[in-house]
Amino acid sequence: MVHTIVETRFGSVLYGTSTPASDEDFKSVFLPDAEEILLQRIKTTLSNRRAKAESEKNVAGEEDRESFAFHRYLSLLAEGQTLALDMLFAPRWAMLNEPDPIWCELVANRHRVISRSAASFVGYCRTQAAKYGIKGSRVHAVREIVAWFDQAIDQHGHLTRLRDALEGLPEFIVDQKLEHTALIEIDHPGRAAGPVLHLECCDRKVPVTNTLKDCRAVFGRVFDQYGLRSLQAERQENIDWKALSHAVRVGNEAIELLTTGFITFPLPNAAHVLAIKRGERPYQEVGQEIEELLERVEASQLISGLRETADTAFMDELTIRAYHRAVCGS
Hints:
Elements: E1 3-10, H1 11-15, E2 24-31, H2 34-38, E3 45-47, E4 63-69, H3 70-78, H4 82-88, H5 101-108, H6 110-113, H7 119-132, H8 136-156, H9 169-175, E5 181-186, E6 196-201, E7 204-207, H10 212-235, H11 241-260, H12 270-277, H13 283-303, H14 312-328
Parallel strand pairs: 2-4
Antiparallel strand pairs: 1-2, 3-4, 5-6, 6-7
Helix pairs in contact: 3-4, 3-14, 7-11, 7-13, 8-10, 11-12, 11-13
């Protein structure tokens, strides 16, 4: 029988953003039993989530429980996964029972297992900013780049390679004060000829070996997406407010972690996050907030006093002791 190391309330209850319609979310970490360890048949994740249809959500009061084997949880922590970090900083009031001493030892050594990489935090923020952000500077940049390609196609023909029509593009980027836009070199492993020059605009990159037609199509789609997003923002339709609230939450958690080495629960800005979750903030305003949070996260990452990488040797030693106890104590 598995031994629970820690079980904690999670989700909106932990964040301080629960509503009468919220479900109950619990996360835990367990020690596998001796037989599973010795036979190498450990189930790394246990879940009692109700099977749901695609896009179906939990109903009010429904319980959602998920548990991770200790070594699996530590691997998620080393990766900087948001779920594992939130569990690590869950306060005592959120725990259902007294945690195992091995969990208390892990918490006491948090400074050894968190790092500035926080890859999942930063990656999540970047993805959400690209998905939801509609900052005016981005719209301006991609609009001007599309216009430049239209002019270049008129002058050179649509099958001309971008590399053969580059003259004037660097000056155009500077003169039009285009943010989020640059000519950059990207290395391709195994390519003997060296790095390839790319045009980057609003997180989309095209190699200069592409035709003007293909490049224009890429950035044209980006501009169309921004246009659709702006229209949806005006109409407040087809907006996933819960996802927006998660983006704002994670961005602020990342900044606090990178600058202080800690994450506070309930969230200091819980009322603001809840207002977004309820759709009480203008979509465009929230999109810009997410983009600005990303910029702050990336700046905080550069100056963070956290370790470069997690102390995996310590985590391995902790796992060995925990699993040794599970086997020899049975």
